[in-house]
Amino acid sequence: MAAPAIRGLGILTGAEAKSAAWGSAGAISGPSHMEGLKKQTVDRKRLEILTLPRPDRPGDRFRRATRECLLALAAVDAMLEDGKASREAIVGERTALLYVTAAAYGASNRAFIERQGGVMHFAYTAPAVVPAEVAIEFGVAGPYGILIGGAPATLRAIEQAARLLEAGTCDQALVLAVEIFEECADLYARHRRSYRWPLVETAACLWLERGAGALSFESARDGRRAAGSWICATGARGRRRDRSSCRDAGGENMRGSSGARRNPTRAAARRETEVVSMTQKEVLDELKGLVVERLKFDPRRAAEMTLETTLPKGVDGSLGLDSLDFIELSVAIEERFGIVIDEAHDLTDEFLSLDSLSRFILAKNGQA
Predict the structure, then answer these.
(1) Which residue range is the domain that position 304 belongs to?
(2) Which of 21, 96, 187, 201 could potentially form a cystine with 142 if both were Cys, beta carbons 3.0 to 4.6 Å apart?
């Protein structure tokens, strides 16, 4: 099989305590927009996790994005920086995308199951959401694939990319890998084998193009398939690197099947704060808090909201809330104010602005 050439490689890793991109000479340099990443070591019953913080990314589209999605986008940015190319270089149907993970979707599944939906909607629990975000953000529209597993799965993804390039199915291929562990640290800590090595959160993207030479994968231990190093010999650009085999953490399967909303009467019964007599301004302040906490709006933007602020997407000067936002906001209001919102009724007028919504809440609590 013909070996692909490495055009660029972007890496974000908790082990390096910063985001990093491998330069052509093997140096490590961090992209400017990710300089805020710091190493965080977490101890969970003797389990050490080297974590990556949630990257900041401008734009309302990323309010609901999961941490693994944002890390994947940052890894692609680092890859483009390493390859000294703009994002236009990977746009279109001639760029393939292969995504690999063993554990990254555990966090979103746990958030969905334990909150019975809440701010985490069912669609975000699928492994496919990560490559989907990358494809949308960077305009990648070529062949794609998803492989579930650790280091061996990543090697298979590289092999698949080489086959696509050799067959002329694509002109370039991105191999994307993301692993996060922090959200499920207590689950991984139950597995005794996890204690031997730290779990290192990582997001990486490899940019491959057609190259010369032959592609082969060899075990680094005298030909034995052992849990040691693997060598990827591409025969291109003189790069030959050891890739350490990942060790499974052995966490529990967190996938769920029910996408139903929580029962509003149970939500009201479980509310943490008993609602007493409130003014409209107090309700407005609570709504501002929910917009930040549950809809992931910037606190600075929430501070500028007034009673005249409109809500639905498509209304001039509004917050631009979509259908998922309104579902989440309804659940949050039920929990916070102890009311039941009957979705059988048309509530378009009630959810038009913060003024109409706050009056609706007061009326439901008999304070109109």
Answers:
(1) 264-364
(2) 96
Residue ranges in the chain assigned as alpha helix (H): 67-82, 106-114, 129-138, 151-166, 185-188, 264-269, 280-293, 299-303, 323-337, 354-364
Number of structural domains (the chain) is 2
Do 305 and 275 sit in the same domain of this protein? Answer: yes
Output the pLDDT for position 255: 30
For 137-163, the pLDDT digits (tens) are 999 999 999 999 888 899 999 999 999
Q: What's the CATH number where 124 sits? A: 3.40.47.10
CA distance 223 to 226: 9
Whether the Cβ atoms of residue 356 and residue 350 lie closer than 8 Å to each other? yes
Q: Let me know whether 61 and 173 are in one domain.
A: yes
Short-list 183, 198, 174, CA closest to 75: 174
At residue 221, the pLDDT reads: 52
Same domain, 163 and 223: yes
Query: Do 47 and 106 meet the contact criterion of CB atoms below 8 Å apart?
Result: no
User: Quick check: 361 and 339 in contact, CB under 8 A?
Assistant: yes
Q: What is the pLDDT of residues 318-361, one digit of tens each?
A: 898 887 788 888 888 988 888 888 877 888 899 999 999 999 99
